[in-house]
Amino acid sequence: MNLSDLHTPAVLLEQSRVRANIERMQQLADENGVALRPHTKTHRSVRLAKWQLEAGARGITVAKVGEAEVFAQAGISDIRIAYCVVGEEKWQRIAALSRQSRVSFCVDSEYAARRASAVFQEAGVAIPVLVEIDAGYGRCGALWSGDEPIKLAKLVAELPGLSFEGILTHAGNSYFGPQSDGETLEAALRRASDEERDRMIDLGVRLDKAGVQPAVISIGSTPSMRYFTNTTRGDITITEIRPGNYIFNDVVQVNLGVASLTYCAQTVLATVVSLHRNDDGSERFFLDAGKKVLTSDRAFRSAGYGQLLYNARVMVPMPHAEINGLSEEHGWVRVPGGATVEVGDRVRVVPNHACVVMNTQRNVYLVDGDEVVEEISIDAQSAST
Ligand SMILES: Cc1ncc(COP(=O)(O)O)c(C=O)c1O
Questions:
Q1: Whose CA is nearest to atom 2 of ligand 1?
Q2: d(Cα 244, Cα 90) in Å, to the nearest integer?
Q3: Are residues 302 and 194 in the same domain?
Q4: pLDDT single digits (tens) 318-352
Q5: Ligand 1 centroid to 244 CA: how many Å?
Q6: Is there a domain that residue 206 lies in?
């Protein structure tokens, strides 16, 4: 099958780029002596998770209990839910899952630790738990610098039905870019990465002194891995990284300086359905891909909703064309100097945020240039709880 046989819009994954992205991150993990546990929320596909495991990943990460259920059902034996799971029904599902796969999850409150413990004790299981840490992002997690993580770790270690596995953070602040005048993109990435590593190691040392040594210190986001190098203080070191987006990359990663366009494996194939000349000589055209596939996520330092390509083989951007608007089923493109496409042409767009694009689809296509190699399913597409 060829690209021209596909109905549009369609989400394409360039197979060789997916493989190269997997290998590159695996190599970074191996060189730094850490386990790679990719976050599979990016693709939600059993097939792609298995490619990551075959390349050397030690287990996978998910955000939802429902995702863990789908991957466990597919035979994946080691799953970390990198999320503060709260709710009796969810803890019961984790207890049931633990009979099938090794499943761990996060807590950042005494409430969750105590209530989860009661559920697991009743079910007669012991579940590995990580204390989630806020190491600078400001989302969930006990603040790395205080005593709260130590109190929580001790509590988890004492409570029946829980076993203390370690600490986990996500440097989502690596997406914020430069934070002061004159800070370069590279300096900002290095700062976020070093802080994530050093703050977690610092906490690891304090936990060790308090008698609760973390077996696992888990960090990671795609941008904070760009310049990651591991360090050690005594016995304490980073043991695990959990990037997710790296398997595809996207406009966000390109604009942050994390990846080049040639590392972007995911594109949306769309058809030009309308084209008109404006009074000022510029042209506008419309794609059959709108919010429902490109999503309305914006990218760092970009006003557009994805990067149109002039040539998808070598990833050359379409000059001057900007996707400057979206409605549900239309991408609105403005070309100041006149368009190089006509109605009926097919174009490719690199999305701003690859992970959410996958969540809009039931199936996507693995491609090798113009050849469609295989249609793969997004197995955990509806695993939203
Ligand atoms: C807890 C957690 N871990 C890891 C990741 C992976 O980060 P990225 O998508 O930047 O690779 C995320 C992303 O949202 C996350 O929330």
A1: 170
A2: 23
A3: no
A4: 988 999 999 999 999 999 988 889 999 999 999 99
A5: 6
A6: yes
User: Which helix (DSSP H) or strand (DSSP E) does residue 285 occupy?
Assistant: strand 283-287
219 CA distance to ligand 1 middle (Å): 9
User: What pLDDT band is residue 303 in, cutting at 50, 70 and 90?
Assistant: confident
CA of residue 246 to ligand 1 center, whole Å: 10
3-state secondary structure of 344: coil
Among 175, 221, 240, 258, say which to mutate for ligand 1: greatest number of ligand atoms within 8 Å of CB. 221
Domain boundary among 219, 248, 277: 248
Q: What is the pLDDT of residue 337?
A: 85
Q: Determine the Cα–Cα distance for residues 372 and 287; give it in Å rounded to an integer.
A: 21
Domain co-membership, 41 together with 70: yes
- Ligand 1 centroid to Cα of residue 42, in Å, is 9
Pairing of strands 127-134, 102-107: parallel
pTM reported for the whole predicted model:
0.97
Q: Counting atoms of ligand 1 from 1, which one is nearest the CA of 82?
A: 1
Q: Residues 232, 275: one domain?
A: no
Are residue 283 and residue 349 in the same domain, yes or no?
A: yes
CATH number of residue 338's parent domain: 2.40.37.20
Domain range enclosing 335: 3-7+260-377
Same structural domain for residues 232 and 344? no
242 CA: nearest ligand 1 atom: 4
Q: Determine the distance separating the centroid of ligand 1 and the alpha carbon of 327, expressed in angstroms.
A: 28
Residues 233 and 329 in one domain: no
List beta partners, residue 81.
Answer: 62, 105
Helix (H), strand (E) counts: the chain = 10, 21
